[in-house]
Amino acid sequence: MDAIIKTFKEGTRRKVLPKAERPSQEEAEAAVRTLLRWIGEDIDREGLVDTPSRVAKAYLEMFSGYDENPQEALGRTFEEVGGYDDMVLVKDISFHSHCEHHMVPIIGKAHIAYLPDGRVLGLSKIARTVEIFARRLQTQENMTAQIAQAIDKVLAPRGVAVMIEAEHMCMAMRGIRKQGSTTTTTCFTGQFRNEPAEQVNFMTLLRFGKDK
Length: 212
What we know:
Layout: E1 2-6, H1 25-38, H2 51-62, H3 70-74, E2 77-78, E3 88-99, E4 105-115, E5 120-121, H4 123-134, E6 137-138, H5 140-155, E7 159-168, H6 169-172, E8 182-189, H7 190-194, H8 196-207
Parallel strand pairs: 1-8, 3-6
Antiparallel strand pairs: 2-5, 3-4, 4-7, 7-8
Helix pairs in contact: 1-2, 4-5
């Protein structure tokens, strides 16, 4: 079962709390101990003694996107493109994120294309941008728009297309508990948004070879 959501509006701009205003690691570990006691665990048993420290360290890694700037990550652009002005598509960028409503995983792939206007990006920078936004609490709709806007702002191309396909563990692990259900979101800017033929070209290239 696929849910398809088209996102065109600007993504929500969210405040990132400065490091100086955040709780210490000791306070984070104490919060984990509280949750463990709340679910009925014995926090003094051998298997859980070091769990609060491990969880705090894991959170630093899984949510490292809060301390990274996607515009800086996109870095410099390149003008020596030999006159190339057709679509650049990077597909099947795997990512793991976390739902901001239940803080459980979102697992999926991002597909990103743009139409150059005299400049191109390093391909690894596109994947890095996905990682930065994925390593924050997210909704899939907002993440889709954020990626498109970041590339649009730094590169100023003729258009950007972003599609994300993901499974949400908040549906698979709790609530309705439906495994295998995926959600698809898209965001188009510029010519991708205004010219249907460019959207068709994007979808055609994206799906090429998948049905073989």
